[in-house]
């Protein structure tokens, strides 16, 4: 059953009349211009339907999550600057193209963010990957930095920050503080995320207006335990253990 206020859209190829297309819940539209939401294509909606389903087992969850992660990385790369690059083809003609010149690295927020490392490696061969572990401090109930291992030259790199679920944004905000404290300019950080809550996206985008967020979907909201709804449950559990 669909949720009140959830945006619904006809999903399918253009040649199909809207009346013949299936309807599905699509991403909430949000005003933050530094948040890019992937196009709500029938493919993406079908992939999200698979991973949201509580009856989807671990092997399928991993397979379909990886396909979405791949889309996020490919879109993320579009947000990096390129320079002109002309080449000669085997038939002797010139092609005026572009190339990416900067250095990049990934930084995963443990544990769930590590699930996105392979997708990043599949697009960026031998990419350096750092890690940050942030957990809730039992005494203060606030996020606390427990561990980080980052490339020593991270200040000279574009950083793809990886975390699949943006709920309240507590850990991701702290992760960005850590990156900035190591000299990474805010506008050199791209946060790649599968599902965001509107609250999380807003907190993040307002606190770091120069940072870009690429997400597959902005969901309806958070429940009383700060799970994203309708969401997909605990991403790390479903990817690593269930
Ligand atoms: N983290 C998850 O894995 N799921 C949520 O719904 C929120 C945070």
TrEMBL record:
InterPro entries: PRTase-like, PRTase_dom
Keyword set includes Kinase: no
GO process terms (BP): pyrimidine-containing compound salvage
Classification via CDD domains: PRTases_typeI
GO molecular function: GTP binding; uracil phosphoribosyltransferase activity
Region described as Disordered: spans on this chain: 1-25
Pathway: Pyrimidine metabolism; UMP biosynthesis via salvage pathway; UMP from uracil: step 1/1
Family as reported in the entry's similarity comment: Belongs to the UPRTase family.
Name of the featured protein: uracil phosphoribosyltransferase
Source species: Melanomma pulvis-pyrius CBS 109.77
């Amino acid at each position: 059953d669909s949720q009140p206020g959830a945006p619904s859209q006809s999903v399918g190829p253009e040649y199909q009349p809207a009346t013949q297309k299936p309807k599905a819940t699509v991403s909430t539209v949000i005003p933050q211009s530094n948040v890019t939401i992937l196009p709500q294509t029938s493919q993406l909606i079908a992939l999200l339907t698979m991973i949201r389903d509580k009856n989807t087992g671990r092997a399928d969850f991993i397979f379909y999550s990886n396909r979405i992660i791949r889309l996020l990385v490919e879109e993320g790369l579009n947000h990096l600057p390129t320079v002109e690059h002309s080449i000669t083809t085997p038939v002797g003609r010139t092609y005026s193209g572009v190339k990416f010149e900067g250095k990049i690295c990934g930084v995963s927020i443990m544990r769930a963010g590590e699930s996105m490392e392979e997708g990043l490696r599949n697009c960026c061969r031998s990419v350096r990957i750092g890690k940050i572990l942030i957990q809730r401090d039992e005494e203060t109930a606030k996020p606390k930095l427990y561990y980080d291992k980052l490339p020593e030259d991270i200040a000279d790199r574009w950083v793809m920050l990886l975390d699949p679920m943006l709920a309240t944004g507590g850990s991701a905000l702290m992760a960005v503080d850590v990156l900035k404290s190591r000299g990474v300019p805010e506008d050199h950080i791209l946060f790649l995320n599968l599902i965001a809550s509107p609250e999380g996206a807003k907190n993040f985008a307002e606190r770091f207006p120069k940072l870009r967020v690429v997400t597959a979907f902005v969901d309806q909201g958070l429940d009383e335990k700060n799970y994203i709804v309708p969401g997909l449950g605990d991403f790390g559990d479903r990817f690593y253990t269930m």
